[in-house]
Design goal:
alpha/beta; two-stranded antiparallel sheet; 15 helices
Length: 375
Amino acid sequence: MSATPLSVLDLSPVPSGGTVTDALRNTVDLAGRTEQSGYHRYWLAEHHLAAGVASSAPAVLIGQVAAATSVLRVGSGAVQVGHRTALSVVEEFGTLAALYPGRIDLGLGRSGQRRVEAARELAAAAPPPQAEARMVDGLLIPQPFSYASVLASPRFALSSALLHQPGAQPPAFADQVADLLALLRGDYTDADGLDAHAVPGEGADLRVWLLGSSGGESAQLAGALGLPFAANYHVSPSSVLDAVAGYRAAFRPSAVLAQPYVMVSADVVVAETDEAAHRLAAPYGPWVRSIRSGEGAIPFPSPEQAAALPWTDDDRALVADRVDTQFVGSPGTVTERLRTLRDVTAADELLITTITHAHADRVSSYELLAKEWRD
């Protein structure tokens, strides 16, 4: 494998005409195939109330994937701690780490906190000025996407209501991370000095990561705590450089890391030829449109179904940043572009997420990329 490791982010996508059972079995199969191809880690995302995504319970899937593999690191990308308590997360991942010591990653995200904050800010703030798209040493940094329409969606409100207990407010992300780390170390005490010990969880052999889409709280907190950081180019390509710069600027050495460690995500489809890859990737735009319209991810269409769907200039504008920053093509084409992403962000590792309608095409994409990257 190349000196820069490749890893996998899997959403357990549900293809049109398929079932959740198909999606979950495909995840376990893909994990074994990517382990054989030399990928370093395998992360499961957390999404809710989406017909086209089956990864709503990452801890459960992590256990299944770890059981079906032998050396692959397996983790969450990311647990949405705004919907959970620190103790529940530590107990779940402590259990996984006890069963699969040295192989479990606990990736944390602040989506739950962001939902509450963003809804509040949307009601009070004027939309920010839009920066122009630009190229940085060959890497496209697109115009930022505004989530105002998504946040105003009734389904967004429904999702938030179902993910939180009535009247509950997510605690500050930094406070939750501090509690979680204290429970893992075994030195947690409350304001009155009373101690608590997570069983399983305390002393667990796992690695904590923070994930972020900007140079804001997640990046700065990961740096200040000396934790590894994953930056989301595939979700928020416009702010990836801010995210990695914010993390590195805030970094302080810790018992975990002596220097910063950055993993950057990328949305990838590889086939034998550029033409074949673009055909497989054609449903990506309509799929992203379903998310950004506020309705939630639809089952992933086939190329033929995607071609038959209506498509307007407004649709194109809605998904342009994601479609234009997808890495699509032959192994050589995609490898060259991924090396640009690595070099511009100075990434220590790349996190590859691939969705195609047919499972065999997704497996092949990962295998073709791994071979080219290694060669």
